[in-house]
Amino acid sequence: MKSDILLEYAGNDSLVYNKDINKIYNANEVKKYGSWANGYYGFGTHNFRYFDAAGKWALFGNVIDEDEIAQKYIFPNGRVVTIDKYGMVNDYKTFDTTQPATVPMDGTSIKNMFLGYIDGIGLVPMMEKTDGYIWYIDNDNQARMLPIERSEYKDTLIYHKANNKSDKFLFVKNDGKLSYFNKDRFEVETKINMNDVEKVLPATNVTDDLFLMKDGTIKNLDGTAVDFQGKKLVKMLSNRYLIMDDNFIYTMQGMSIKNTNTLATLYNKAVNDLLWLKNGKVMRTDNSGNMSFLNDVNGKLVKDLVKVDETGTFILMKDNTTKSYGSVSNIGDLKAKGIDFNNIAAIVSDDTGNNNKKFIAMKDGWLYNFSGNKTEIRLVDGAITDFTGGHDYVFDITDEIQSKIDELNNKPDITQEELDGLIDLIDQLSEDEKPKYDATIEDLKKKVGAPDTETPTLTITPSTEDWTNKDIVLTIIAADNKAVKSVTLPDGTVVQGNTASYTIDRNGTYTFIAEDNAGNKTSKDIIVKTIDKTIPTVTISENGTNISVSFSDDLSGINKKYYKIDNNEWAETIPNMQQLKDSKHTIQAKCTDLAGNESEVKSYDFHTSEEAINAGNKALEALTKAEKSKTQEDINNA
User: Fold this and answer.
1) Mean pLDDT score, 555-560
2) Which of 119, 189, 411, 506 is the most buried (most CB within 10 A)?
3) C-alpha pair distances (Å), 115 with each of 303, 429, 633
4) Helix axes 438-445, 398-409, angle to 10 degrees
5) Do 244 and 257 contact (CB within 8 A), yes or no?
6) Where in the chain is the domain with CATH 2.60.40.10?
7) Angle at 10 between CA 35 and CA 67, to 5 degrees
8) How many helices (H) and strands (E) in the chain?
């Protein structure tokens, strides 16, 4: 998993204002890390900068020599780690420190780094190393290994208490289990398995992160279920409102629900703690679940409810003025603040209880805080795109819906997933506006083909099928009647697309999995048994007047045998002993196997006499005859 916060020098030729920012490194990390993130980090005015919505503007305490650095990371809490080209790891524990700590480890073994959290220790830089394990830098500046390999998990997530107060750093294991590590480096499993989760409900000001389960219950990380008072959930309307099977709308706070005494048939739209009814009334729920009407809002004049973050909401009126609630309550009317919502590029928030990490980013790059005041910070050179990936707000979704309809109408056929994407967009509209798209949805349903139930196929080709003493490279090609989504390799690595390669260094059974866009999967086992990296062995022994040379290889088998007497050349035939003089001699032997491995040379010293030479030659003649005929009689004579 590559880190989103890897630093990349962005240049500063166009920085013309003292507080211009042309790159933001942790724009999409702040919401995930919640209270563990302390601000935004970017590049501006010749160095890395910290900035927040409260007006703080700080300079990185050091200057990084790009020519000497192999890797560098800046984390959402301002900690910076650099690795130079020689493998030295420097840890700047705070953003303004001038003297980094040197971590006693080989930085060349680090593949990637990210910010993690260990219960009882706190926030720590974690790293994936070439040994496959996850390590971290402890508070005593030592690198320590966690008992988890990168191949064992597919993602990480952070569990938050109310107001996005970060609580647990969780590993999403391949089997769906969620676990974290304590100060003793013991892995602790939670009561939640992500395979049973339909959706994660982000924390609000009155609820922790909750898990909407596929069985219709809502649970926290401990596995405790929200008390539904014996009723069943029919539909989640927002992070605070639910429809239960008695056909009433309920509010949710903590681990309990409360009846609003409002019939579900009156529902028009809900965003956060605001409920807009078909009769024009707009209601708001307090932290205890008590409802009150917004008497200053005429529901007949409301154009839409606009979600800003998990607590903040704009009511957009038909005259394009706004009323503001929750985290944006200090703004009031955007128009009165001189903010044209049509020119808003993004609204970013960490969802915590304060507004220091919340901005309204305009298309011209200027940032406004959640009080509606223009800050001194401007995004330039495309830095605005760092803020626009994944914001919550949409002021007018109708253009996006129409664009999606046009796209699907221009296709000869569409998938159910594409149609579901359009329906999800339409579901964000009020109940009064949804019916106008009913006919369009019915027409598009006719273009949806039959469900794709055909599994992909896998073709796996080795670099060689012969015996070899080298690694074998497998080329994997997946095919599907529609499209291949990914190929999963034996070590758990998921490769997007339909092609991949995998290097095998030992014999064994290896499983590959292909998945298509419809979720159909196929697996294929490849048995590799032609790798032989073990050299054959040679044994020379003497029994009376006989000298015996034997060769053995446990895998591929003997290919060629070589003999040598004294200083003569190596030969594949057995030497003629009659040519030897009556004196001391040395016989040497070696061999190769079918994989190309060559044995060590074995030597044996012996003395000859005329009688011994004749006897030896007879033995060698018998051995040669036995090798050729392979009859039992000749073998016994040999």
Assistant:
1) 92
2) 119
3) 42, 38, 76
4) 30
5) yes
6) 457-528
7) 105
8) 7, 47
If we measure between CA atoms, which residue out of 378, 260, 358, 245 comes closest to residue 312?
Answer: 358
pLDDT digits (tens, 9 = 90+) for 577-603: 666 777 788 889 999 999 999 999 999
* Residue 286: partners with Cβ closer than 8 Å, 6 or more residues away: 273, 292
Among the four given CATH numbers 2.30.30, 2.60.40, 3.40.50, 3.30.360, the one describing domain 537-637: 2.60.40
Taking residue 444's Cβ as centre, other Cβ atoms within 10 Å add up to: 19
Euclidean distance between CA atoms 197 and 223, whole angstroms: 12
Task: Give the pLDDT mean for 44-63.
Answer: 84
DSSP string covering 34-57: GGG--SEEEEETTEEEEE-TTS-E
628 phi/psi in degrees, rounded to 5: -80, -45
Collapsed DSSP state (helix, strand, coil) of residue 30: helix
Q: Specify the CATH number for 457-528; select among 2.60.40.10, 1.20.58.100, 3.40.50.720, 3.30.230.10.
A: 2.60.40.10
Distance separating alpha carbons of residues 599 and 552, to the nearest angstrom: 10
Site of tokens 């591929």: 556
Q: In degrees, to the nearest 5, what angle opens at C-alpha 371 toward C-alphas 366 and 372?
A: 40
Residue 310 CA neighbour count, 13 Å, CB half? 27
Rounded to two decimals, the pTM is 0.65
How far is 416 from 7, CA to CA, in rounded Å? 39
Which residues are registered as beta bridge partners of 459? 477
Cβ atoms 73, 80 nearer than 8 A: yes
Instruction: Report long-range pairs for 1-4 (Cβ below 8 Å, ≥24 apart).
Output: 1/112, 1/114, 1/128, 1/150, 1/155, 1/156, 2/112, 3/73, 3/112, 3/113, 3/114, 4/28, 4/29
Give the whole-angstrom CA distance, residue 77 versus residue 325.
29
Token reading at 539: 């044994």
Q: Which two tokens stand for residue 577?
A: 């002993």
Is the alpha carbon torsion for 201, 38, 41, 314 positive or negative?
Answer: positive
Q: Which residues pair with 277 in a beta bridge?
A: 267
**Total length of the chain:** 638
Distance CA 265, CA 565 (A): 102
Q: Could you write out the DSSP letters of every residue in 378-440?
A: EE-TTTHHHHSSS----S--HHHHHHHHHHHHTSSSB-HHHHHHHHHHHTTS-TTTGGGGHHH
On whether the CB atoms of residues 183 and 119 are closer than 8 A, the answer is yes
Burial class of residue 78, CB neighbours in 10 A (0-12, 13-18, 19+): buried
Sequence-distant (6+) residues with CB within 8 A of 526 are 460, 462, 474, 509, 510, 511, 512
What are the pLDDT digits (tens) for 509-544?
999 999 998 889 999 999 999 999 999 999 988 877
Tokens 């009334």 belong to which residue? 281
> pLDDT tens digit string along 450-494?
677 889 999 999 999 999 999 999 999 999 988 899 999 999 899
What is the pairing mode between strands 20-21 and 374-379?
Answer: parallel
**Distance from the first to the final alpha carbon of the chain:** 65
Both tokens assigned to 231? 């009723």
Taking residues 252-262, what's their average pLDDT?
Answer: 96
Q: Above 80 in pLDDT, residue 45?
A: no
Question: Is the per-residue pLDDT at 613 higher than 70?
Answer: no
Q: Which residue is it, tokens 């022994």? A: 541
